[in-house]
Design brief:
This protein is α/β, with parallel strands linked by helices. 47% of the residues lie in helices and 13% in strands.
């Protein structure tokens, strides 16, 4: 089939970016012909055969490069010219763009974004002549695509990802009509989990008659060939990973950009100075890049052969990484050689480092103030994000155990036990993941699915995860294999989350490696049956083909 995929962002990273990349690869593997319309500026991926870029004033896109691939199908990546403004659901860094959250756009900016995208899509459809359009996120691309699809009499489908609803439609009433309009014209609406289905019906159902009949449950896939059990020892896997990291970051130089503006600053209050220090630390760890000292930390980890837990995702308060940090002293108290490897980037990095330093020095008062600062500062995406940590301290104090906890923090080298890697691509961190004893997914916010959990299980690694929202669907293989023992590694919700993380880690570390490996094989087998991208892409194509036949 000739398929045009519309995505407003990149083909690398996490979430919907990774979803679109993986789906496009699977469709190419099945022999289909694709154009992916997105803002990716470096689509050098194994399945991409051409890169086209729209340029100001030209009606015909410029072909930047072409190449042969080993795939039966082919994929062209087309980057439309939308000007310098890129609206997002959650603030993030996109080099070359002025980035604003959708909720911060004025009407002129929003109209400009819609108009530029719609004009580009219209020209692309006229030139590529696709049989179907596949559009991502509830807003704004379905609204943008609807009149174009109608003009050329092409069916379009929408894949829902949680962030657009949670952080845009629910927060800004302007976007509900756009979402209703875009979903109303879709042939099918793909949702990754029962939780997301309920969410879509709750938000859009009152205004859309027949919405439930349009919805199809279609969990995202996992690349079971990329994410699989380790075939080499940790040292060799680390060497392979570092080779890729060095190639990707070759020639990149990172300076201390923070220092340039220090002289111009006015005297600051205590909270402002704390914010400044967090920003200074963050400035040393640019987004989308690995840490400069990654090689040292990874070489040390491989040499020591220490058992390690892994966190994989954005360093945001919604992901619960702030709850894993105070849990880890309770882990190394029982297993002193254990390590926590934190893979990812995000605005919480500076605060996390300061939390670790405070615990490491036994400064529990400072640690508490940092958490209180977090609760006051990081409130845009959720309420009380550091509440579970403060409740943990309160419980320790009430039980008369706070002094003992401080002593454990002070006596163990927590800074040494927690290793930050910065951003690693899936092709890089897949070398590390299968060696982990468990993957931590302590999410506090609602999740559309839980891709990192399925990637872990595909790698033979058990996820220690919150059990709510879309994660319930993603964790089915673990629950099936672990049976009654699954409760030991499910974190529930916020209640006693810090203590539950520590207990779950200690449970896994106390199990024989052979038993974990055996259950890992069983989890992987179920993931391959239920969540492989091959199966997911085939189901999507079946919907596409039916709509295309009925449209003739």
């Amino acid at each position: 089939m000739r398929i045009l995929i519309c995505h407003g962002y990149l083909l690398r990273g996490t979430g919907s970016n990774q979803y679109v990349q993986s789906l496009a690869r699977a469709l190419c593997q099945q022999g289909h012909h694709l154009v992916v319309m997105c803002q990716e500026d470096d689509p050098r991926l194994d399945f991409v055969s051409a890169y086209l870029r729209e340029e100001e004033g030209s009606l015909i896109p410029h072909t930047v490069w072409e190449k042969e691939t080993d795939y039966p199908g082919n994929c062209m990546v087309f980057k439309p010219d939308i000007g310098g403004l890129l609206p997002v659901y959650v603030l993030d860094a996109y080099p070359g763009f002025t980035v604003k959250e959708f909720t911060a756009l004025d009407e002129i900016e929003l109209d400009w974004y819609v108009d530029r995208n719609r004009r580009s899509l219209d020209r692309l459809v006229e030139q590529f002549v696709p049989e179907v359009l596949h559009v991502n996120h509830a807003v704004m691309l379905p609204y943008i695509a609807r009149p174009v699809a109608a003009k050329y009499d092409i069916p379009y489908f929408v894949s829902i990802h949680g962030s657009a609803i949670d952080f845009t439609v629910r927060k800004d009433s302007r976007y509900l009509p756009y979402g209703i309009d875009g979903l109303e014209g879709a042939k099918k609406i793909f949702v990754p989990s029962e939780h997301t289905e309920e969410q879509v019906i709750e938000v859009f159902g009152p205004a859309l008659r027949g919405l439930e009949e349009k919805i199809a449950l279609l969990p995202p896939g996992v690349d079971t060939e990329l994410f699989k059990p380790a075939e080499t020892d940790l040292r060799e896997s680390v060497e392979t990973m570092m080779t890729g990291v060095k190639e990707r970051s070759a020639g990149v130089r990172v300076g201390n950009f923070w220092s340039r503006s220090l002289e111009a600053r006015e005297p600051r209050g205590a909270l402002q100075r704390l914010g400044d220090e967090i920003a200074r630390i963050n400035s040393l760890h640019p987004e989308w890049l690995p840490d400069s000292e990654l090689g040292v930390g990874m070489e040390w980890l491989a040499r020591r052969k220490s058992p390690f837990m892994m966190f994989l995702g954005k360093l945001l308060e919604t992901k619960g990484i702030q709850c894993a940090i105070p849990a880890f002293p309770l882990v190394i108290r029982e297993y002193p050689d254990a390590r926590l490897v934190v893979v990812g980037f995000g605005e919480l990095r500076g605060l996390l480092e300061m939390m670790i330093a405070a615990l490491d020095e036994g400064e529990i008062g400072t640690f508490r103030r940092l958490c209180e600062y977090g609760n006051e500062t990081y409130v845009d995406r959720m309420d009380d994000p550091f509440g579970p940590v403060l409740k943990f301290l309160e419980d320790l104090s009430g039980q008369g155990m706070l002094d003992d906890y401080v002593r454990v923090c002070y006596e163990h080298d927590l800074r040494d036990a927690i290793i930050f890697t910065g951003y690693l691509t899936p092709e890089e961190h897949r070398n590390l993941l299968p060696h982990a004893r468990a993957l931590l997914v302590p999410s506090l916010a609602q999740e559309a699915f839980g891709m990192v959990a399925t990637e872990a299980m595909s790698s033979g690694v058990v996820p220690i995860a919150s059990y709510h929202s879309g994660l319930e669907t993603a964790l089915e293989p673990m629950r099936t294999v672990w049976g009654s023992r699954a409760e030991q590694v499910m974190l529930g919700t916020r209640e006693k989350l810090v203590s539950r993380i520590a207990a779950a880690c200690n449970t896994v570390l106390g199990m024989p490696e052979a038993a974990l490996a055996l259950m890992g094989v069983e989890m992987r087998s179920i993931v391959k049956q239920r969540f492989s991208w091959e199966a997911t892409a085939q189901r999507i194509v079946e919907f596409f083909e039916e709509a295309s036949r009925n449209n003739r």
